[in-house]
Design goal:
Oligomer: single chain
Distance between the termini: 11 Å
Number of domains: 2
Shape: globular
Structural class: alpha/beta
Length: 233
């Protein structure tokens, strides 16, 4: 059995691991993305589009070529800077005119260095083809295929209607994370909504003044949370 820690997409995978193979998970610490029960009526992108419209970044990037063209226009380093420095509680939109210019000055957060950006950009470029004539599996295409992948997960989860996450769990999120500010999320996390579907939930931690990349923004605190929780097991 394993002790699992997940963040963002990793958190989604961790929730599914706990649901599909509870015999393999000793305990779980998940960050930023809470467990959302299977919607019987609508696909994930349809729900996001209903809440935020066509220009919400996930909805906008479902159109083939849009994400690749934007990354190519901005350059990978500028694109990465924009992603990692986004620290607002409101939804992230991709306007028709794009996310600014390649040469704009972007001030990095205190927890982020130019060396970090170099590493992220070079690693990203190894997995991504920005040649729109090439169709290869890549990091960006995981996002582009969100609806397909989510529908696959949605269909695969059909045998588990009303499934619960019984692994002993701690969930941590920042109050300036755009996920925490989804409609209804405050109530869901603060008034036992999450616990209805995660009976093994021991604690929900809402970190004040913290955005989406809390594992980097408050690395020391997150490490303590993980370590102290893991000592129980």
């Amino acid at each position: 059995m394993v002790f699992v820690v997940g963040h963002d997409w990793g958190a989604i995978i961790a929730w599914f691991l706990c649901m599909f193979r509870p015999d393999k998970v000793k305990a779980l610490v998940n960050l930023s993305v809470p467990f959302i029960p299977r919607n019987l009526c609508a696909k994930p992108v349809e729900c996001l589009r209903a809440m935020y419209g066509d220009y919400y970044y996930i909805c906008r990037f479902q159109e083939p070529g849009v994400a690749e063209a934007e990354i190519a226009r901005l350059g990978t380093r500028t694109f990465q800077k924009k992603v990692f420095t986004y620290h607002k509680p409101e939804p992230l939109y991709k306007p028709e005119e794009g996310w600014g210019s390649r040469n704009e000055k972007i001030t990095l957060s205190f927890w982020l260095s130019e060396e970090d950006i170099d590493y992220y950009a070079s690693t990203f470029e190894k997995t991504v083809s920005l040649d729109l004539s090439i169709t290869t599996a890549s990091a960006v295409r995981f996002l582009l295929l969100l609806n397909l992948r989510s529908v696959e997960s949605w269909e695969l989860a059909a045998p588990w209607p009303g499934a619960e996450i019984n692994a002993q769990t701690k969930f941590i999120i920042g109050d300036e994370d755009l996920t925490y500010n989804f409609p209804g999320m405050h109530l869901y996390l603060n008034f036992c909504g999450l616990r209805m579907f995660v009976p093994g939930l021991q604690d929900v931690v809402i970190m004040k003044g913290v955005g989406h990349f809390l594992n980097q923004e408050r690395a020391g605190e997150i490490t303590k949370h993980i370590y102290n929780f893991s000592k129980q097991f």
